[in-house]
Model the fold of this input.
Amino acid sequence: MAVVLSVLALLLGGLLAWPPAVWAAAGPGAPSLPVLFDRALAASREGRFGDALPLWDQVVELAPQEASAWSNRGNVQLALGDPVAAIADQDRAISLEPGSADPHLNRGTAEEALGLWPAAAADYRWILERDPLEASALYNLGNVEGSQDDWPAARRCFEAAAAARPGFAMARSSAALAAFQLGDTKAAEKQLRDLIRRYPLFADARAGLTALLWQQGARGEAESHWAAASGLDPRYRQEEWLLQIRRWPPVPVQALAQFLALAP
Done:
């Protein structure tokens, strides 16, 4: 599913390691359980989801009370395109470990894949009520707000995520694109140029600046940034990818589409 790919990096970042307490309590014959867990975790982190799923199946069968195993399996279910199964696994993880933020974050991404915006927002807000500076929850909530066309709220979330986690380049780029959507092109241009100075190989910022400069009539500079952006990541040519996977706002997408329609 389209949204699955857009959250894949977050899913991999949210994988949970084997808890030492469970290792200690595993009992006779259990040394194979941590080995299985580590193999499943490695396959998941390497993107070998088809290999990872049967390994997680074995882990949850051997350790059905281990919340991290259910949550990790849910991430793999989502990466394989089954958000319904992913939500069921995250529900199980939450029931086993009600105070953990990770299953809520992971369940939210699965809910986004199904377009369940209020449910996803509720999961992210549950996290933010307990940790207002949780950057991933802020960023994901921004994507949910944007998906519901509330770009002022999305911009606030993206800016908060960028402030909470210095170096969160995608949050800064998304904040600039939301500003572009809202007509605050001066702020958007400054943010995108600042990003490019710091991260010269960041395709998202270069593609966003291409769209903005084109709209402002600066064709030559737009073409220069586009040469870099398209060479770094050719997916920026795809309007559907921008809207459904990268989750750009419609105004920048339209501006870039117009540029591409007329560019040589």
About this structure: The chain has two domains: 1-131, 168-264. The chain has 17 helices and no strands.
